[in-house]
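During the reporting period the student researcher (J.K.) took over the structure-prediction task from the postdoctoral fellow and processed the backlog of single-chain submissions. One of the processed entries is reproduced below for the supervisory committee.
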Amino acid sequence: MDPEEADLVARLRRGQSAALNEVYALYHARLWAFLLRLSGRRHVAEDLFQETWVAVARDAASLREDTDLRAWLFTVARNRYRSYRRWAVLDIARIFELGREPKVHAPSPEHEVEARADAQRTEAALASLSPEHREVLLLVVGEGMEAAAVGAVLGLSAEAVRQRLRRARLELSAAVEKRRGEGSLHRARGAVR
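J.K. obtained the following structure tokens:
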């Protein structure tokens, strides 16, 4: 743990409101994005976001000295989502966009159409994944977290995270390819008419 984070955890443990404000400033956007992508609904994410920060404020004084702050925050957010999911049926729509290529030069209109179609296929494929696979992808790919930190959030060993990530990537790839095949079939049927 770096000294700045250790100091922040120590100040949180002492109940300093300025420390909570600093944590909020550092992590609110990332936690918001995580909850929005995980839930797929803005109003659900808003509620979960508020619940997360209430829990953070309530439990900050009981942190251990060696707490990985980022892992703890994402664990709190994930637990709020899991509690919500137990009580509600989620209709997850547009969650995460993986397939977009960076623009180096002005692409052709055909390339733009294909890139949008790829992004939509990827989003739909991600939405079709199991919640366990979706959350590991969001934490590793979306948040750039290492296996050990993701393990702390999910309650898994680093090796179990790597295995789940491998399965999630395979499942995502298969789902994207399936949607790509369905899109080709749909275009071919449209051309015959």
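The committee noted the following: The CA atoms of residues 70 and 166 lie 23 Å apart.
J.K. will present the remaining backlog at the next meeting.
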